[in-house]
Amino acid sequence: MLLCEDNEIYRIGLRVLIELEPDLVVVGEVVDVASACSLADLVDPHIVVIRQGLLPHMQEESVSALCSRDRAVLILAETESKLDLAGALRAGARGYLSRWVAAPRLVDGIRALAKDELVLDPAFARHLLQFLTTGPTGAAEIPAQLSALNPLTDRQRTVALLVAEGMTNGEIAARLSVSDATVKSHITAVLRRLGVRSRTQLAIFVNNDTARQS
Hints:
With about 210 residues, the chain is an alpha/beta fold. The chain is built from nine helices and six strands. The protein has helices at about 10-20, 35-45, 60-65, 85-90, 105-115, 155-165, 170-175, 180-195, 200-214; strands at about 1-5, 30, 45-50, 70-75, 95-100, 120. A six-stranded parallel beta sheet has the order 2-1-3-4-5-6, with helices on both faces. Helix 4 (about 85-90) links the parallel strand 4 (about 70-75) and strand 5 (about 95-100). It is globular.
């Protein structure tokens, strides 16, 4: 994992928190985006954690570069007023959490990213709607005939809603008292029934459907 954070105290805290976990390793630390891109090419981390403030105006080209080689980028947002979730998703980021997120949630989010899951702070879920009208990777990729969650069973609908809230497979499993494998199976079935290709598109669709009904 590569950390991109210019506040030394916060960066050290992140590293200590992450390295307390036996399955997580920090392979590098940098203080700016340019250094992150250069070091990422050298150490090829699976995950890059970066403070949003280091991405002025959401430099999509920088995020895209960090996402190359199938790397997962987790952006830590400082204030909701500065969010650009649409830009982050368009650039390829798969994680978007508050910089002040609780430590267990951050660790769980990092593990979920390692499993190629979408990690999104529930407080930011409404910003997914922006993504529907911000370019070719937005609404155009979601089949027009999808207008409701009716094709889903009750349990599949529940899982879809929890995915849209930004919960990881592990969190959903704990909420529903089922195994991670069962959650993964439900998500696979939901994607197939709705005709969407990823958790990101599923979350976008569910939030859009909820907004239409409200």
